Structures are given as structure tokens and as C-alpha cells.
């Protein structure tokens, strides 16, 4: 492992994966070691048009003794290669290979017997699907930050006819781009060069997001269908979201006080589909990526995580592990 772009405290390693139709494929695992380890670990997975740059979030966990790992999935961030279509996969199951290999490093190589899986947005859909299928015995909890549990927008977008069209076009023309208007207000409200608080690589997380392809959206909608049918995870799960969404004309203030990406009502509606023990908390004034909210708001989010950890994970009250 070598030093990461986040600084010398963060170490990075490349995970080689089998090639896909575009050629070689890699994923990237970032690690932050705590000063006083408690024997537990966290594995974090980012969302769409994103990558791991959340040093404050990592240090919050490390300050509590957790070894923190973050995975840049294939075709995202540190893992994006020149010949690749950014973020494109035809099935969310494709990500299971790098999650498996990261998990092996965390549990077998590094010896962590209790691991919390953390994920944001699209990662918050992929990781529960992976956990449901794999049932790793070391998984003790899930923390999902604004997980993408359904298709936001008009009802027709969730209709059987639309799903059928996605299936057909996704099969015949998977790389056809879906036209959409994307506001840069959210990205500009985050990045420090545009008035925000955070520093990240705009070539890896563009202000204008990324193109959406039919085949990729088909994969996401298939994942939604699996979630809606009900997963059966037994570990305690925390679902964090903003208290409100806003889809009107965007300003910096709406972008910094609402989820302007996903519908938080959908998140709360489907939260119980993840498993048997789900805590859903809406944070007033939070944005889509809750831990990038304004300082006083993310302090509330961290307090909520801390209370939930103490009650259901670190106390051992529930005592439910996947595979047990």
C-alpha cells in the first residue's frame, strides 16, 4: 500500500479484477488506521458520479477505534481507467466482486471479526443487495446515507411500461444516453472553489454529474425491484436522510438544506424493506450526502450515528449477525 491523495494518514491499494468487454478493470481500497484500535472496522461505498474523499467521516470512525476502509468501485474515482465508460455496469452484481475482495482483505488478511458496512446513495442500494446475497458472518451493522431505494420523479417513471421499455432498450442499446437536465447548484454548493466547504477532484466528481445510460439504469431498477420484494438482513441498520427534498428551481440555500437528488419520502417508505431491524432518522437541514451538510447539521447526524451505535451495535443488545 502507498499514501493516498487524501494525505499520508490514508493508505491506498489497487484491487485487480477480471476484465470486462471494455478491457482491464480495477477497484481501489483506501484505509485509515485508528490510533487506538477497538478491533472493529468500517467499509464504506460511495454513490453515483462520486468517489471517496470524506476524510472527516473516516476520521470520525477512526477516533472511535474503527479501522476505516473505503472502496472506489470500478470505473469511479481512483479506479477509473482511460478506456472505460465512467460508472457503467450492466448489473449491480458486477460490483460484488470488488466488495468481496475488499471484505476478504478486511476480515481475512487484516483480521477484523466485526465490520460495519457504510454506503451512500447508489452504494446504499448495492451494499444491502450484496449483504443479502453474501450473508458475511462478520457483518454487524449497516449505515446507509440517503440510499437510492426507488426512482424519484413522476409516477410514469415507475410504471410497468417504463420498466419494459428500459428492459428492451437496455438489451439492444445499453449505452444509449438518457437525456436529462442536471443543475450544477448541488456540486457548486459543495466544492470549495465554488463557495462550498469540501475539496475534491472535479474530474472524478464533476459538478454536472455523469451521463446516465439505459443499461445502467436498467441495472438500478432491477436492484430496486429486489429491494422492494424485501431483503432479510438481520443486523441493525441505520438509514439517514434529509428531512425534506426539494425539486423546484434550485438555489444555494435549497441545495444546502434539502435533498435535491432523491425523494426522502421514498427512502423512508422503503427503509423497512432492508431487513428486520431498521432505524430511520431524518435530519433537519441535511443535504443528499448527509455527512457533507453544514457543520451544525452534520453534527446532528454524527450524534445520531453515535447514539445508534451505542444502543444497537457496541452494546451487543441485538446480537444478530448475518449468517448466524
UniProtKB/TrEMBL annotation:
InterPro entries: AB_hydrolase_fold, Hydrolase_4, MAG_DAG_Lipase. One of its GO terms (molecular function) is hydrolase activity. It comes from the Bacteria. Residues 40-180 form the Serine aminopeptidase S33 domain. Keywords: Hydrolase. It holds the Pfam family Hydrolase_4. This is Alpha/beta hydrolase. It comes from Nocardioides ganghwensis. The lineage of its organism: Bacteria, Bacillati, Actinomycetota, Actinomycetes, Propionibacteriales.
Amino acid at each position: 500500500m502507498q499514501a493516498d491523495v487524501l494525505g499520508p494518514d490514508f493508505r491506498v491499494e489497487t484491487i485487480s479484477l477480471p476484465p470486462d468487454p471494455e478491457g482491464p478493470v480495477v477497484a481501489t481500497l483506501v484505509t485509515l488506521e485508528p490510533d487506538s484500535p477497538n478491533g472493529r472496522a468500517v467499509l464504506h461505498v460511495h454513490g453515483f458520479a462520486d468517489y471517496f474523499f470524506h476524510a472527516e467521516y473516516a476520521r470520525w470512525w477512526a477516533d472511535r477505534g474503527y479501522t476505516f476502509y473505503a472502496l472506489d468501485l470500478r470505473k469511479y474515482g481512483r479506479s477509473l481507467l482511460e478506456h472505460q465508460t465512467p460508472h457503467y455496469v450492466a448489473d449491480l452484481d458486477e460490483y460484488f466482486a470488488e466488495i468481496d475482495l475488499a471484505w476478504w482483505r478486511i476480515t481475512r488478511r487484516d483480521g477484523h471479526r466485526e465490520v460495519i458496512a457504510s454506503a451512500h446513495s447508489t452504494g446504499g442500494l448495492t451494499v444491502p443487495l450484496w449483504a443479502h446475497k453474501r450473508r458475511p458472518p462478520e457483518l454487524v451493522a449497516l449505515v446507509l446515507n440517503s440510499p437510492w431505494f426507488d426512482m424519484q420523479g413522476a409516477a410514469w417513471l415507475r410504471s410497468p411500461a417504463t420498466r419494459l421499455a428500459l428492459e428492451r432498450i437496455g438489451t439492444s442499446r445499453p449505452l444509449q444516453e438518457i437525456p436529462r437536465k442536471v443543475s450544477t447548484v448541488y456540486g457548486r454548493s459543495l466544492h470549495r472553489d465554488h463557495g462550498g466547504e469540501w475539496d475534491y477532484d472535479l474530474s472524478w466528481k464533476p459538478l454536472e454529474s455523469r451521463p446516465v445510460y439505459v443499461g445502467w439504469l436498467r441495472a438500478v431498477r432491477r436492484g430496486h425491484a429486489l429491494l422492494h420484494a424485501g431483503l432479510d438482513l438481520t443486523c441493525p441498520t441505520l438509514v439517514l436522510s434529509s428531512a425534506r427534498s426539494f425539486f423546484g428551481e434550485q438555489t444555494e440555500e435549497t441545495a444546502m438544506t434539502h435533498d435535491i437528488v432523491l425523494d426522502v419520502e421514498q427512502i423512508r417508505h422503503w427503509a423497512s424493506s432492508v431487513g428486520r431491524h431498521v432505524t430511520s432518522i431524518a435530519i433537519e437541514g441535511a443535504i443528499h450526502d448527509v455527512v457533507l451538510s453544514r457543520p451544525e447539521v452534520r453534527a446532528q447526524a454524527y450524534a445520531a450515528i453515535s447514539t445508534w451505535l451505542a444502543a444497537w451495535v457496541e452494546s451487543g443488545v441485538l446480537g444478530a449477525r448475518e449468517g448466524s
